[in-house]
Automatic annotation (TrEMBL):
InterPro entries: Quinoprotein_ADH-like_sf. This is WD40 repeat domain-containing protein.
Amino acid sequence: MSSSPDALTTPRLRTARVTRIEEHRCDVWSEDGNGSVGFAPMFPTPRVERVSPGHLVAIATGPGGADVVVWRWFDAVVLGTGSDGSVRLWEPAHGEVVARTRPSYRSQEPGSRVWASAGLPGADWWVADSAPHGADVELDEVRALYADNDLWASAFEPA
């Protein structure tokens, strides 16, 4: 990646599944294989209580080639669909939640596994399909959240 001023505003983002968690790093699996990745300094702590094996994470590659986790999606179970199109989910750390769907979300049967996220603008919770590779999660929204709040430069600073 170049070191131009725009390099920090548009880092490469990709997804991976968490396989093991420590406070400052997590092991992940993606179609590129297994690896170990650090967390962006602003990623909330304690991380071992917020990230679990099975979660999906967004990994950003910085201008120096360093990778950091900048976001995570919960592994959740579909409980049902509301008449307004919302989806009731169960997620171990949060219990039952109601999520809005992304435009690409395909209706899932109760008991199906999906990705759920909290904290992105527009809804308290969002739901996306759970394909392990190419999961249609809101990477563009994560990228925009970091860019709109000028977080990219600090995401790659040492913790």
